[in-house]
Design a protein that fits this description.
This protein is α/β, with parallel strands linked by helices. The protein contains 14 helices and twelve strands. Helices cover about 45% and strands about 15% of the residues. The protein starts with a strand and ends with a strand. Bound molecules: nicotinamide-adenine-dinucleotide (NAD) and prephenic acid. Belongs to the prephenate/arogenate dehydrogenase family.
C-alpha cells in the first residue's frame, strides 16, 4: 500500500532524507519548511511530491512524520502533536543530535495515535540548507533509533523500511547512552575544534603568516569548526550537563599533561601519546562499526590537471567500483593525497596493485 510521509524541515538532513526516501516507488512525500525557498528547491529536485501547504491536514493523512528541524523546534512540534485529533496511527521520528529533551517531550504526549521513535543519522556536514542535501549522505552511516517503550517491533520495522534507501545501519540505544556517546564522540570534539580555531585567531594578529602554515593537521582537526553555529549552539545547550562534565574532565587531564611537561616527564608524555594512538588506530574502520566500513588506499598524485582522472580511469578499465574518493587537504600546492575507498578488501588490494604497477606511491593503513 502506498505510504504517505510528511517531512518538516527540508534543510541538509531533511532534504537528504527526502531525496533518499523518494527512491521508494510506493511512497508519497509531502514537505514543509518555514523557508519557502527550501520547499521550492526540494520540489524542483524531485525530493518531495508536493508541499504540505496545510500542515495539520497533511499530517492527519500521513502514516509517518519525520521532524528534521532545529532541536528546540522539533520539541515544539512534538508538543503540538498532542493536540491533533488523528484517526489513524502516526509514526513520528526526528533526526535530533541530542535525545534527552526530545524523548522527554515525546513521553509527555498523551495522544494514543502517536508512536514516537527517536532517530539520529550519524552523518552530516559542515554545510546547511537544502542546497547541501545529498541522497547518499547516510550511506554506510550508523542511524541510531531511540523508540519509546510502547512502540511495537512492527512500527520500528516500518520506519526502517522507509529509511532503507539511505543505506544506513540501524542501532537501538536509550537516550542516556545516546547522549553520552554523542557528547564524547561528536559534541565535545566540536567544542575543542572551535577552541583551537579561536586560539589560532588570537595568535594571528602577532603572526599574520600563521594561516599559511595551517596545513594538514590543523585543517583535519578543525574542519567541523566551519559548521552552522546556530545548529551547534542548539546542540551544546541541549546536552549542556554532559558537555560541562566533559570539560571538567578535560581541564583536569590537560592540567596533568601540563605538569608532565613542567617536570620533564618525557616517558609519561610518550606513553600518553602511545595510548591515544593505539585507541585511534583501533577504531573500527575495516570491520563494520561506529565508523563506516571502507577499505581505503592513499595515493600521492601530482597537483596538475588530469591526475585524478588518470587514477579513476585505471579502476573503470578494471571494473573496480569506488565507494568514495576524497582529496585530503595536506601538502597543499606540492602533491595531492587522494583517499579512495572500496567496499571490499579484495578491491582494495587489486586497486593498490594496479596503481603500484603504474608507478604510483600507494599506502594502505593496516
Ligand atoms: N548537520 C548535521 O551534520 C546533522 C547531522 C545529524 C543530525 N542533525 C540534526 O538535524 C536537524 C536539522 O539540522 P540540519 O543540519 O538539517 O539544519 P539545516 O539548517 O540545514 O535545516 C533545518 C531546516 O529546518 C527549517 N526550519 C527551521 N525552523 C522551522 C520551523 N519552525 N518549521 C519548519 N521548518 C523549520 C529551516 O528552514 C531549514 O530548512 C537538527 O536537529 C540536527 O541536530 C544534523
Ligand atoms: O561530518 C560532520 O560535519 C559532522 O559534524 C557530522 C556529525 C558528527 O559529529 O559526526 C555532526 C552532528 C550530527 O549529530 C551527526 C554527525
Amino acid at each position: 500500500m502506498r505510504q504517505r510521509v510528511t517531512i518538516i524541515g527540508l534543510g541538509l538532513i531533511g532534504g537528504s532524507l527526502a531525496l533518499s526516501i523518494r527512491k521508494h516507488p510506493d511512497v508519497h512525500v509531502l514537505g514543509y519548511d518555514k523557508n519557502n525557498e527550501s520547499v521550492e528547491q526540494a520540489l524542483k529536485a524531485g525530493a518531495i511530491d508536493e508541499e504540505a501547504i496545510d500542515l495539520e491536514k497533511a499530517i492527519k493523512k500521513s502514516d509517518i512524520l519525520l521532524l528534521a528541524t532545529p532541536i528546540s523546534k522539533t520539541i515544539e512540534y512534538i508538543q503540538w502533536l498532542d493536540g491533533l485529533s488523528l484517526n489513524k496511527t502516526l509514526i513520528v521520528s526526528d533526526v535530533s543530535s541530542v535525545k534527552g529533551n526530545v524523548i522527554e517531550a515525546a513521553e509527555s504526549v498523551r495522544n494514543p495515535m502517536v508512536r514516537f521513535i527517536g532517530g539520529h543519522p550519524m552523518a552530516g556536514s559542515h554545510k546547511h540548507g537544502f542546497q547541501a542535501a545529498k541522497a547518499h549522505l547516510f550511506e554506510n552511516a550508523i542511524y541510531v533509533l531511540t523508540p519509546l517503550e510502547h512502540v511495537s517491533e512492527g512500527e520500528i520495522e516500518q520506519l526502517q523500511q522507509l529509511l532503507f534507501p539511505t543505506n544506513a545501519r540501524f542501532l537501538l540505544f536509550d537516550r542516556k547512552a545516546h547522549d553520552e556517546m554523542t557528547a564524547v564522540i561528536s559534541h565535545f570534539p566540536h567544542l575543542i575544534a572551535s577552541s583551537l580555531v579561536q586560539q589560532a585567531r588570537k595568535w594571528h594578529s602577532k603572526h599574520p603568516h600563521l594561516e599559511d602554515l595551517a596545513a594538514g593537521g590543523f585543517r583535519d582537526i578543525t574542519r567541523i569548526a566551519s559548521s552552522n553555529p546556530a545548529l551547534w549552539k542548539d546542540i551544546f545547550f541541549q546536552n549542556d550537563r554532559l558537555l560541562q562534565q566533559m570539560l571538567d574532565d578535560w581541564i583536569r587531564e590537560m592540567q596533568q599533561v601540563k605538569e608532565m611537561l613542567q617536570s620533564n616527564e618525557q616517558e609519561a608524555v610518550y606513553d600518553y601519546l602511545v595510548e591515544a594512538k593505539a585507541f585511534r588506530d583501533g577504531l573500527p574502520v575495516k570491520k563494520r562499526g561506529a565508523i563506516p566500513a571502507f577499505y581505503d588506499i592513499y595515493v600521492d598524485i601530482e597537483d596538475q590537471p588530469g591526475s585524478l582522472h588518470q587514477v579513476v580511469a585505471y579502476f573503470s578499465d578494471q571494473q573496480i567500483s569506488i565507494k568514495n574518493i576524497e582529496i585530503l587537504e595536506m601538502r597543499e600546492g606540492i602533491t595531492g593525497v587522494l583517499r579512495i575507498s572500496f567496499q571490499t578488501k579484495a578491491e582494495q588490494r587489486k586497486a593498490c596493485r594496479i596503481l603500484s604497477d603504474n608507478g604510483y606511491e600507494v599506502h594502505i593503513e593496516e
